[in-house]
């Protein structure tokens, strides 16, 4: 049986709706983003230019959240699916 676009969109919205918004906020509060930002900053101090993301020795979620929420500048080199991401260290070192 084929469904129309409106009913499919309605089902999708229902699936994506957060059931327990308080639980989501609690998880966010439990994450120590400031510690991740500090760990990234500490590692990058004393380096110059661009540092590959893989050198940070953290799991990818803390690195990405720390970079995004910590205001770091970064760029992807290569193709869309290439995982080579570089973090700019000169802007960080000029703020110190």
Structural account:
The chain is mainly alpha-helical and 96 residues long. 53% of the residues lie in helices and 10% in strands. A three-stranded antiparallel beta sheet has the order 1-3-2. Strand 2 and strand 3 form a beta hairpin. The radius of gyration is 19 Å and the shape is elongated.
Please, how many helices? Answer: 5
- Please give the order of strands in the largest beta sheet: 1-3-2
* N-C termini distance: 63 Å
Task: Output the helix-strand order.
Answer: HHHEHEEH
Helix content: 40-55%
- Which of globular, elongated, flat, extended, rod-shaped describes the shape? elongated
Mean pLDDT: 77
Rg (C-alpha, Å): 19 Å
Count of DSSP E strands?
Answer: 3
Q: Indicate the structural class.
A: mainly alpha
Largest sheet: 3 strands, antiparallel
* Oligomeric state: single chain
Uncertain parts = none
Strand content: 5-15%
């Amino acid at each position: 049986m084929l469904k129309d676009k409106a009913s499919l969109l309605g089902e999708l919205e229902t699936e994506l709706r957060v059931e327990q918004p308080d639980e989501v906020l609690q998880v966010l509060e439990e994450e120590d983003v400031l510690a991740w930002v500090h760990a990234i900053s500490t590692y990058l101090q004393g380096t110059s230019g661009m540092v590959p993301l893989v050198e940070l020795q953290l799991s990818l979620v803390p690195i990405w959240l720390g970079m995004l929420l910590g205001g770091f500048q970064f760029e992807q080199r290569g193709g869309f699916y290439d995982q080579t991401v570089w973090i700019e260290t000169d802007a960080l070192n000029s703020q110190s």
